[in-house]
Amino acid sequence: MSYVVIGSPISPFVRKVMLALNEKGVSYEHQDVNPFAPPEGFREISPLGRIPAFRHGDRVINDSSVICRYIDRLERNVPLYPEDPYASARAEWIEEYVDGGVMPVSGPRLFLPRVLGPLLGRPPGDENDIKKVVEEELPRYFDYLDSQLGDSGYFVGNALSIADVSVAAIFGNIRLAGVNPDKKRQPKLHAFIKRMHGRDTFKKIIDPVKEFVGKLWTEMD
Question: Rounded to whole angstroms, how far apart are CA atoms 13 and 61?
Answer without folding.
Answer: 14
